[in-house]
Amino acid sequence: DLGCFTHDPGFVATASCTSKITYIDGDNGILLYRGYPIEQLAEHCEFTEVAYLLMHGELPNERELLDFDLEISDRAIIHESLRKFFDGFHYDAHPMAMLVGVVGSLSAFYHSEMNIKDPVQRLRAATRMIGKMPTIAAASYRHSVGRPFVYPRMDLNYCENFLNMMFSRSSQNYIDQDHYIDQDFVKALNLLFILHADHEQNASTSTVRLAASTGANPYACVAAGIAALWGPAHGGANEAVLNMLAEIGSVDNVPKYIAKAKDSEDPFRLMGFGHRVYKNFDPRATIIRKTCHEVLSKTQTNDPLFELALAVEEHALKDEYFIEKKLYPNVDFYSGIIYKALGIPVDMFTVMFAIARTSGWVAHWLEMMEEASTPISRPRQLYVGPAQRDLAAIKNR
Ligand code: SDX
């Protein structure tokens, strides 16, 4: 019911699609998942509760959540021949390159089992995708550092499992004694996954919806979404923030780089600042900023990068240009810093975003499939090329 949420009737006319999943009010910094404020979900829910909400439209009761968590754990393991897929990647392949390739290949493993016209099979495929993403993501990391693959475990929750698959030092997958997992890190990861779960028609979700509108299977659609997310203007921004901080190098250089970001002739942008929709604050950044400072104080890391990040934040928030243009830190500014403090390598940051956003992507895929009559999205264009002309033979060109 757009009327209740859209102040500007012109907006309705220009909206590219309708959806019941996520609502954003960019001017007032409001983000709702299926009507629930992100602040409440972030404070009270497990990530899998939120994934269930996005997919089903309602929060699960205890029994529903238990069944959902069990199904996710059960689906987390990947086929042994899919594990061998990683052997084909050079050790220094970017984890996002491995993710987009391996997720796309799930179509070869499960496509025959899935009739997208059957709602039960669609839900099973969507849940399977949420279950397997952390396993494939962690396997990408383990391959890149030459460590043995660690299998998912039924006795760990979603975030604990991911951290164990990433950092467990032994390859004794089911009797791993050293699975000490810091619960503060698990709490921070749970929050990051909730905040990144969905965000209306962002570039990667729109890509998934476009692919879904052709009737493509969810694994192919999610692989398309991963490809779109990789760009530094979108999901690659968290990795770009850390690379930017490394380039700035020291607190003394911050004013120079703030000036570069303001120079319209200079292509340099302050990564992690600004947003297509939020023209005030990104509510996710407000939530995540507190966690960022908590994780930094807990890890007591003396990495100068964190002091530098806080200096960039302080300078930009006080700068007239950024205030006038309403360029505030977005979710990616803080998420990169937290991931680094959690020991996640920089080239895995966008992979982290993909793990979380998989729940939004599959929710939108389900929504598109439910509207069986959804016509294929086929954007039109404003042609600005040459007028019609006749061909000259090559010897006359
Ligand atoms: C995500 O769509 C989503 O929902 C995405 C996302 C999600 O959850 O899926 O929220 C995740 O992608 C967050 C954004 C991550 N990207 C970055 O942090 C990269 C840095 N940000 C910029 O690239 C930029 O802010 C964009 C691309 C995010 C938005 O660009 P817009 O739409 O051009 O921003 P704007 O219209 O508000 O810009 C107003 C002015 C412009 O200058 P003028 O044309 O007025 O002279 O501010 C400038 C922009 O050039 N500007 C910046 C800037 N962002 C905008 N100047 C310096 N540094 C920046 N970061």
Description of the molecule:
With 397 residues, the chain is mainly alpha-helical. 56% of the residues lie in helices and 3% in strands. It is built from 18 helices and three strands. Strands 1-2-3 form a three-stranded antiparallel β-sheet. The chain is globular. Residues 1-7 and 173-178 have low confidence and may be disordered. Bound molecules: s-citryldethia Coenzyme A (SDX). Residues 199, 202, 233-234, 237, 261, 264, 269-277, 325, 327, 330, 332 line the site of s-citryldethia Coenzyme A (SDX). It catalyses: oxaloacetate + acetyl-CoA + H2O = citrate + CoA + H(+). Belongs to the citrate synthase family. The active site is at 275, 332.
Care to give the gist of this entry?
The chain is mainly alpha-helical and about 400 residues long. It has helices spanning about 10-15, 40-45, 45-55, 60-75, 80-85, 95-110, 120-145, 160-165, 185-195, 205-210, 220-230, 235-250, 255-260, 285-300, 305-320, 320-325, 330-340, 350-370; strands at about 20-25, 30-35, 35. Helix 2 runs antiparallel to helix 9 (about 185-195), helix 9 (about 185-195) crosses helix 18 and helix 11 (about 220-230) packs across helix 18 (about 350-370).
